[in-house]
């Protein structure tokens, strides 16, 4: 059986973050702001490795560099993220305690912070893997989110997963062992049937789970063009709707 979400983290180069940490009610978060005032913001939802993982903080800084207040809250609320040294046999129990479709309360706390403390008027959400599933869920439930990008995360076994409230972009890797291609095909067929807002699904050739989070120095040369393309596509979607 394939191991969901456990893409090869490999050796990672060091990363000096550009933002800072804040406390928002019961949630810690990493925030990065552009050098100028903006009333546009993006919430980044981390994967199973949590809000302190260098790759996700790099993504936060990257999005902020395009002119958005960008924030990655700790959706695990201080509990331990999944670690590469953890045993796969324990993953199902870990997931029961870290359900990606039970993020509504934390999302509301962060939305309130962005609106009241940062002056944000238009807010989007981007999520990776575990966070991609959370994005899919939130785009079905929270009309305050103007647009979403779900990267290699899909809600399975739910007839309610197709009626998106606002524009959503689904990004997948062709060789992602965690998501069967027929799941992507089904998603596309059902969205065509039920979805009344803008959406997009794109599969990137040869790419595995977690491909879009890598820092430039950690990319393999053959993957770099597709990673950069996915990043451009993500930013273009955000720019279009937020």
Tally the helices: what do you get?
6
Helix content bin: 25-40%
Which series of helices and strands comes N to C?
EEEHEHHEHEEHEH
Total strand count, please?
8
CATH superfamily: Alpha/Beta hydrolase fold, catalytic domain
Under CATH at level 1, the class stands as: Alpha Beta
Question: What distinguishing features does this structure have?
Answer:
242 residues, alpha/beta, Rossmann fold, 8-stranded mixed β-sheet, 6 helices, 8 strands, globular
Brief sketch in words of this structure:
The protein is α/β, with parallel strands linked by helices.
Q: Mind explaining what this structure looks like?
A:
This protein has 242 residues and is α/β, with parallel strands linked by helices. It has one domain: 3-Layer(aba) Sandwich (Rossmann fold). Helices cover 31% and strands 20% of the residues. The chain has six helices and eight strands, in the order E-E-E-H-E-H-H-E-H-E-E-H-E-H. The chain has helices at 54-64, 91-97, 104-117, 130-141, 181-194, 224-241; strands spanning 20-24, 27-32, 40-45, 69-73, 122-128, 145-151, 168-173, 199-204. An eight-stranded mixed β-sheet has the order 1-2-4-3-5-6-7-8, with helices on both faces. The protein starts with 19 loop residues before the first strand and ends with a helix. Belongs to the dienelactone hydrolase family.
Write the layout of secondary structure elements.
Blueprint: E1 20-24, E2 27-32, E3 40-45, H1 54-64, E4 69-73, H2 91-97, H3 104-117, E5 122-128, H4 130-141, E6 145-151, E7 168-173, H5 181-194, E8 199-204, H6 224-241
């Amino acid at each position: 059986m394939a191991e969901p979400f456990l893409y090869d983290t490999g050796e990672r180069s060091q990363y000096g973050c550009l933002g800072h940490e804040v406390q928002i009610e019961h949630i810690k978060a990493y925030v990065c702001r552009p050098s100028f005032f903006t009333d546009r913001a993006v919430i980044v939802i981390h994967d199973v490795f949590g809000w302190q993982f260098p790759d996700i903080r790099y993504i936060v800084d990257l999005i902020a560099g395009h002119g958005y207040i960008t924030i990655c809250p700790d959706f695990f609320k201080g509990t331990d993220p999944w670690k590469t040294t953890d045993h796969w046999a324990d993953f199902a129990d870990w997931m029961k305690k870290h359900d990606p479709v039970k993020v509504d309360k934390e999302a509301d706390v962060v939305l309130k912070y962005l609106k009241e403390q940062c002056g944000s008027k238009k807010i989007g959400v981007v999520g990776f893997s575990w966070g991609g599933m959370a994005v899919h869920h939130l785009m079905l439930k929270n009309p305050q989110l103007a647009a979403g990008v779900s990267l290699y995360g899909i809600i399975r076994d739910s007839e309610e997963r197709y009626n998106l409230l606002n524009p959503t972009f689904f990004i997948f890797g062709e060789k992602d062992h965690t998501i069967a291609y027929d799941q992507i095909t089904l998603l596309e067929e059902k969205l065509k049937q039920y979805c009344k807002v803008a959406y997009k699904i794109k599969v990137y050739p040869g790419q595995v789970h977690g491909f879009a989070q890598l820092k430039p120095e950690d990319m393999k040369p053959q993957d770099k063009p597709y990673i950069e393309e996915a990043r451009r596509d993500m930013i273009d979607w955000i720019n279009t709707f937020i």
